[in-house]
Structure formats: structure tokens, C-alpha cells
């Protein structure tokens, strides 16, 4: 699996978990202190997200960072 595929898989899991909690991209972004467009680009697999932001997003999604990455199959 290359980097782009990994980013896309992680982004898809973030989107699924965000929707499971009935959060908009803007609401998730507000919770983690990031911009809405950043969340959108992560969900589309366009960004190589940092570990710090993975942790922030996972916490907001009520998951551990390890669980989030595991759900993506990484």
C-alpha cells in the first residue's frame, strides 16, 4: 500500500466515524481546533495527516488513535 492509498483509507474511516456521531465537518473541526477545509481534505485522502492531528481527531471521534488507524487497516 502506498502513501496515497493509506491516506485515502484513513480519510474514509474518519468520515464514517464522523457521520456515525452525526457531526458535520465544521463541528468536528471546531472540536479539534482545525479548519473545516482541512478536515475535508483529510477525509478525501489529500493530506498526509500528522500524528498529533490523528490523536486530536480520534479523541473527538471517541476512539483511540490506535483504533482509528486499525479501522483503516494500517
From TrEMBL:
Top-level taxon in the UniProt lineage: Bacteria
Keyword Transcription attached: yes
HTH cro/C1-type domain span: 14-68
Any GO CC annotation of this UniProt entry: cytosol
GO terms, molecular function: DNA binding; DNA-binding transcription factor activity
Keywords associated with the record: DNA-binding, Transcription, Transcription regulation
Pfam families given in the database record: HTH_3
Keyword Transcription tagged: yes
Annotated InterPro entries: Cro/C1-type_HTH, Lambda_DNA-bd_dom_sf, TransReg_Diox_bact_type
PANTHER family linked: HTH-TYPE TRANSCRIPTIONAL REGULATOR, HTH-TYPE TRANSCRIPTIONAL REGULATOR SUTR
Protein name in the entry: Helix-turn-helix transcriptional regulator
Organism expressing this protein natively: Sulfidibacter corallicola
Amino acid at each position: 500500500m502506498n502513501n496515497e492509498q493509506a491516506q485515502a483509507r484513513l480519510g474514509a474511516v474518519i468520515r464514517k466515524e464522523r457521520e456515525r456521531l452525526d457531526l458535520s465537518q465544521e463541528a468536528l473541526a471546531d472540536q479539534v481546533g482545525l479548519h473545516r477545509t482541512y478536515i475535508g481534505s483529510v477525509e478525501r485522502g489529500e493530506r498526509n495527516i500528522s500524528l498529533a492531528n490523528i490523536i486530536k481527531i480520534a479523541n473527538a471521534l471517541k476512539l483511540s488513535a490506535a483504533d482509528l488507524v486499525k479501522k483503516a487497516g494500517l
